Amino acid sequence: MSLFKAREWWSCQVGSGEEFDYGCLKVGSFTENPNHKIVVGSHQGILRIFNPSGSHVDSMSNNNASDLLLEKNLGMPIIQIEIGKFVSSSPVNQIAVLFSHKLSIYDYVEQAGVTEHGRQFDLELNYEHNMNRPTFNMCKGQFGSGGRGNKESSDCEYICVQTLDGVLFVFEYERQTMIKSLPHTYLPGPICYLSRSDAIATVSSNYHVECYKYQALAIASGTDHGSSSNNDARRKGLDIDPSLSVSQSSKKVLPEWSFNLGECALGIQTTQRIRNASQTILVLGERNLFCLTDNGQLLFMSKFEYNPSTFIVYNSEVSQSDTSNPGVRYIIGTHSRTLFIAQDGHIRWAAHVDSVPVQIEVATIQNIRGMICTLSETGLLQCCYLGTDPVSTSIPTIMSSTMINIGEAEEQLTKLNKQIKQAMNDPTLVVKRKANAQVTIQIDDTNQFSTTDETRFQRHDVESTVPSSRVNIRVKSSEAIQNTLLTVHVHTPLCAQPNEIRMGHIGGISAIGTASIVFWMRDDLTPWNLEATFTVSYNTMSDNICHTIQKSYKLPVKLVARSYQQPISATIAGQCKITLGANKPVTDLSRVFPELSTGDSNQQQGLTVRFYGSVENVSILASSKSQKYRFQSDSLASIWLFSNLLIERLSASSSIDFEFGDPLPLNDYFSIIDRHYELRVECEQINSTLEISSKQFRAIQKRLLSKFKDKTPSLLDNLDILLENTNQQILALADRYEQSRYELNRCSHDLSCATKLICLLLKISVSLSNDNAQLLNAILSPVTSDDNEQGWEETVDAAVNYALRTVLARSKSTEPGSMPSTIGNSAATMDINKLKKRIQTLCERLEKGGSLVSSSSIRETNFSPDSAHSSTSLSTRKEKPIGSNRRRKHDDDEDAEIPNGDHDDAFSMLPSTNARKQYNDEDDDN
């Protein structure tokens, strides 16, 4: 930080709420008067011209109202401003304004006043060039003069515009004379003109300073600019069609020289040195300043210990006359609001300014030479000069060295706590935390269905068109609220558009905020939750405190599935079958799922549905004789959504109880866990192999680079072939990793659905209380996260192991320990078989009467088969091992109506007897 502050001579806040950047400030003279005027253009399209007078009307402001000569709205964002002789028939300077798709040349005209208001100033458009490409920056110069600098060529100044795709447009007065695309330019960089060598220097996207001869660019573009003798004839007869594409008029052009910066360039400018006739180029980087000759040789480089924002090369005419102190003089502005005045890499002075400058200019104002003009991004324009005013800094208060009396401090603390307590108990002083405004969210239940094809289905044998539902939302408030924001959250694979709506100000009962949300199924994944959550956050006008309200809404199942017209007998061959008994007569399935009903009488007892993007069917069968519902599918995950919907809808209409007397389908559940674990390991292995291949690729590149840099040619030793093979291997691994990640994402959704189904069946099977069911869902969490090192297997294994060691411990002496840590372990080092055995043990102990709700005597509880029968919180029906295939005798008769001839296939869900014996006999470290 500087010890001194720049002395402010004049300042002005340009506009209000406008934005400025590099290129928005320029100083110059429009008459023979050597005093400069300041031209400022904003991104809002307003051009202003100032003539600082230095005389202040009052002490409150640092400028006079008459200092603003002109203010004009040009209607388009201003990118850059240049001042020069851009009209051949005019001896004075003009203003060149670069817009996003246009270059305009304006004359600064003065009109004598006829009233007491004095003179008036205006801008008159001289000519303009419309461009079919977005522009980036521009520079001016005597293009085509060949570096002679004679009187005839010194009067002409042409403009070169660079577009966002690196194409150069050269305009000579009213005509466009050249268009040329620079090679290997993907992002444009700063640009300048070298008058001595008649060349254009720019910084390419690979961080190289490249210099192109203007004659070479003109020849490559198809325009002959080789000699000055035919310049007049060329100006009269030659013109290039602006609609001509770059590919049609471009030839390959190579830079005259190139210099590697190794970092992004913030700016590039040129100046003239005295010690030799060459022209120097200064390039400001993010960490260094480079000074080059006009043939690409490095003169010096300065390394920064600060973050630069802009720079300016100044006072070249003084350097030419001052032979005792020649050199390159420049000013660097930093983000720490400091100006560094330097010469040939040495800092001569540092001064503190009030804002971060985005552009610096050196001008002659009111016959004062060397005035420093700075412009900030918020529009603070300052004219200052160097001085020795110290920077005003706040000096920290020196604490008294007197020892603190502990007794007095405690007494004062007690007194303050008493006052705070009294204030909190006083109802008149309590801050009202509850919003006075009554805000409600109303959801229109009349769904408006349509179709959409904005899906990301990976399968090509399924239809990509899915239904969409439009839901109308209304937000009401009894009082005026502001900053109202409505956010919508749905679970994958569902999608909401838009998912965030800013309603702004909602005032009173009459004003209602409305929104229309479209929902549809975007990915071909198994849905596990149809709930949409609407959250409204707002600020009240009285207390200006942010409040939130939420409301949930069940989306129709029609968005994710459709009725599949197939005979029931053909759909009963599903591998996974779940049968739920009820204590009330069965309800017609067409009434339970009216959105999936087609009016067919057969759908009263049987319904076949299919998820969008899937080829697997889910059959729902109802047996009126046995009062049972059966779900069949080839996938266990597909059963979850419809079984849960059936239980919710029947329980909402009547007090119905369900029972599940079959073994839990742990065999199919463990298959999904194995598949999920295998995919996680596969992704880790592919990622590890990809990392090794990438290191090998970089090592080969370094070897090749060293061979190419060697002055003595040598054989490549087949390194080019190895590089190509490694590249192909990396591409193949990337494709394989992408496919594995997609399969892992699908399997994660299946695992979530299957986990929810297992928890539901276990709750029904042993009549778990709501508290126990909540804890069970927390232990067997359906939330899968595949982006972290600790995945679903590690999280569930730690939770199940902790539950088995504490609330479900078999021994009285078992003491609860800390949660087992699995952080940092990869998926490949985990024992997945032990996880499955622990889940098996958890289900067994819950069936034997275990409880997940902790109590004061939970550590002394010893769960046994006898205590399970005497438990009052469990069902009075007969308990059986979780892996048993025993069924009640009357089940055979009750299931006769369900069209399935093979009862063993319908209810055998677990591993073989030997496998179950192995699970039961092997203790799980407890």
TrEMBL record:
PTHB1 hairpin domain ranges (all copies): 663-764
- Stretches assigned to the PTHB1 N-terminal domain: 1-390
Question: Which intervals of the chain are annotated as region Disordered?
Answer: 854-926
Record keywords, A-Z:
Coiled coil
* PTHB1 platform domain mapped to chain residues: 556-655
A single GO BP term for this record reads: cilium assembly
What are the record's GO terms for cellular component?
BBSome; membrane
Domain named PTHB1 GAE: which ranges?
Answer: 465-550
Q: Where is the composition biased (Polar residues)?
A: 854-875
**Protein known as:** PTHB1
Its source organism is: Rotaria magnacalcarata
